[in-house]
Structure formats: structure tokens, C-alpha cells
Amino acid sequence: ALEGGQDAILVSSGMGAVTGALLLLLKAGDHLILTDECYHSTLNFCEKFLPRYGVESSLVPHGDYAAIEAAIRPNTRLILSESPTNPFNHCLDLKRVVEMAHSRGVKVMIDSTFATPLNLRPLDYGVDLVVHSVTKYLAGHNDLMAGVVIGSVKELTPLRQMQALFGQIV
Fold it and tell me: Fewest C-beta atoms under 10 Å: which of 58, 111, 116, 119?
């Protein structure tokens, strides 16, 4: 409700939200664009783990819109970024990224953990999926671990169906 999405899936951690969504959205032969100021574990997963399954990624400078656009290939399926970034607080022009991505049939996923829905609601800009590490700012009391993926029912239904298979039941 805070994010304004139609649906949300709560999982065991923020990385569970990121990895579950990526494993569902991408397959061998696909390409992913991610910005260089993403959470370090997200970068590690995309650069070291996904290639084992035939998924390529291109790392582009955060906020370099020409580089983001130039990195889009025919097999690009997703642009992934954090906005705002932690700790630098760099923000993407989400509307600009969404327009360039959607015009080429590419989805956009934003990790908006640092902003929380009180400061930024990426879905309002046309972003397809938003992820949060609930453990950090939404929970705030250091008494739980959780992550969430937020989006439309259409986007989340396949992820919900795969939730048990991935062991992400909370």
C-alpha cells in the first residue's frame, strides 16, 4: 500500500527479493543492464552468478543515460538500478530510464530501499518492479529480516508461483 503497487510478495530478505525476481525474469541468452552503484551483493550476483546460467550483464555508470541506452541489445530484458544509491544518494531520472527501456521492450526494476516509499514511489514513474530490503529502513528495529517485491499482479503472479520452489516462503 505504501508503494502504490497492485501486489507485493514478502520474502526472507532483500537479496531474496532481488535474486528471486532476477531468476524468474531472466533466462540463458538474456542480457541485463545494471548501474555501478547497485548494492554490492546485487552486483556480485549479476556479475559472478548469473553468467553461470548464460545470462550476460553490462555494468554502466549510474546516471549516464547515453551509456544505458547504448548498452541496450536485442536480447536485453531488464535494466536494474538502485535509486537513490546508498551511500552516495545519487538518483536516477526514472521517467527517462523507463521511457528508453519500454520503447525497446525492456523492463525496469529499481531497488528503492534507501528512499523508502515515503520519499520515492518508483511505480508512479512507470517502473515495472520495485524491491526493498525491509530489514533496513521499513522495519528499522533490527528485529526481522525480510524483502519485498512490488508491482502489478501480472508481473508478480509468476514470481508468486515460483516462491515455494525458490524456498522464499516467509
Answer: 119
